[in-house]
Write a structure and sequence with these properties.
The chain has about 210 residues and is of the alpha/beta class. It has one domain (about 5-205): Rossmann fold (3-Layer(aba) Sandwich), CATH 3.40.50. It is about 40% helix and about 20% strand. The chain has helices spanning about 20-30, 50-55, 65-80, 120, 135-150, 155-175, 190-210; strands spanning about 5-10, 35-40, 85-90, 95-100, 105-110, 125-130, 180-185. The strands form two sheets. Strands 2-5-1-6-7 form a five-stranded parallel sheet, with helices on both faces. β3 (about 85-90) and β4 (about 95-100) form a beta hairpin. The longest helix has 20 residues, at about 155-175. About 30% of the residues are buried. The structure holds adenosine-5'-diphosphate and ligand LLZGTKA7. Ligand LLZGTKA7 binds near residues 14, 15, 40, 93 and 165.
């Protein structure tokens, strides 16, 4: 049997708490060999577009992501090769000039709204999670986060949510729940689900050493 890293997919709607869940799992293994890849880092480059065009872009459609690059980079990590991960600039709605060098590790967490939508990515995953949080809670979290951390106004978050985020969530994000092995209600506060995941990952890692 060829040794290869474990891939955990963490999906869920915007504001569901998937980054928090992924970070909690990461924290438990920090001394071990684990890395996190956010699908958001792979939003397509938009430097050629005006700011007005960038604001109008639909960031909740599968085609907004450069999944070919994400797939290529995950495959490299699975072959224990390092990658140059892109960095996304939310305030300017485009890829930044920086990249981050990521060394391969034994556990790879892939996190993003549409990480379970692409069959090619799903096929690389050993465990698939969907963080399931009610829409009213998600919009409140998103409002606070986008204003505090992503340079948005109250009106712009509400406009984008009602015109694009909500319909895209219903059309593309929510249906990927059917691919999940585990559905995690409440996100990062769900200690039981996080402990179960950590135990499961440890078991897989131990089995890999034995095999
Ligand atoms: N259980 C929770 N209770 C309160 N706030 C939370 C909780 N989980 C996440 N948040 C906050 O909500 C926002 C969105 O959470 P995040 O994990 O980034 O969600 P996602 O990655 O799904 O968009 C963040 O500001 C985060 O700190
Ligand atoms: O330029 C951008 C890029 C993305 N978004 C929004 O981000 C969320 C996904 O991030 P989460 O951390 O999962 O919330 C997505 O719903 C996009 O609408 C953006 O507003 N601008």
């Amino acid at each position: 049997m060829t040794k290869k890293p474990i891939v955990i997919g963490v999906a869920g709607g915007t504001g569901s708490g998937k980054t928090t869940v992924a970070r909690e799992i990461y924290r438990k293994f920090k001394d071990k060999s684990i890395l996190m890849i956010e699908q958001d880092a792979y939003y397509k480059d938009q430097t050629h577009k005006t700011m007005e065009e960038r604001i109008k872009t639909n960031y909740d459609h599968p085609l907004a992501f450069d999944n070919d690059l994400l797939l290529e980079q995950v495959q490299k990590l699975l072959s224990y090769e390092k990658i140059e991960k892109p960095v996304y600039d939310y305030a300017n709605h485009t890829r930044s000039k920086e990249v981050i060098t990521v060394d391969p590790k034994e556990v790879i967490i892939l996190e993003g709204i549409l990480i379970l939508e692409d069959e090619r990515l799903r096929d690389l995953m050993d465990i698939k999670l969907f963080v399931d949080t009610d829409a009213d809670v998600r919009i409140i979290r998103r409002l606070m986060r986008d204003i505090e951390e992503r340079g948005r106004t109250l009106d712009s978050v509400i406009d984008q949510y009602t015109s694009v985020v909500r319909p895209m969530h219903l059309q593309f994000v929510e249906p990927t729940k059917r691919y999940a092995d585990v559905i995690v209600p409440e996100g990062g506060q769900n200690r039981v689900a996080i402990d179960l995941m950590v135990t499961k990952i440890r078991t897989i890692l131990e089995e890999k050493v034995i095999l």
